[in-house]
Amino acid sequence: MGIQERKERDKERRRQRILVAANRLFSKKGFSKSTMEDIASEAELSTGTLYLYFKNKEELHASLSLRVLQYLHIRVEHVNKDSDLTPERKVEKLIEAMYDVYDFDPLNIINLFHLQSSETLRNLSPRLKILIKDLSRKSIGAISDIFQEGIEKGIYIENHPVAFSDIFWSLFSGVVLREASKKTINEDKDYLKKKLALSFEIFSRGLKKDKPTVQRWGS
Hints:
This protein is mainly α. About 75% of the residues lie in helices and about 0% in strands.
């Protein structure tokens, strides 16, 4: 291994060390109460070293969300490219993928939703903004392709597939954020998975040209 290659490997290891420390600290103290100095201490590095890798706390926060987007893209593409699945089965697998994405990193999927709806995205470095936007676009595109296939085969109602994918993503993010906000008041109650299941069922049935009755909540 050459000197330059070793330097790049060490640099990436240090970057990952910072991300792990930040994630641990955000989980314990929350984003707003954590400082770059706190993160540096958690990572056992100097604050100056942190700024060599991330220009501010928001950039660090967004980089953690990027990891979730990368996993999302992998899962959705896997479903989209499975030619053995019918359009209806692909939607079922897509819904399963959303549960997997949430379970993969609950804290940072919530952070991602906040990031996408805030001004923070505008203040990130151009490279990070491009990565986030590109992965988001590819994931939404893959989801749209799933719905497009169902439309072309006459299974789903005729409408723009991107509209379907936007609604699907909004449904997912909205339920997750709503339940996360309620959990800050009462941590003992967690109805996220049940409400996601009901929401996805309503959405899936609404896609079809023939719409059977939706099962009642709690039955």
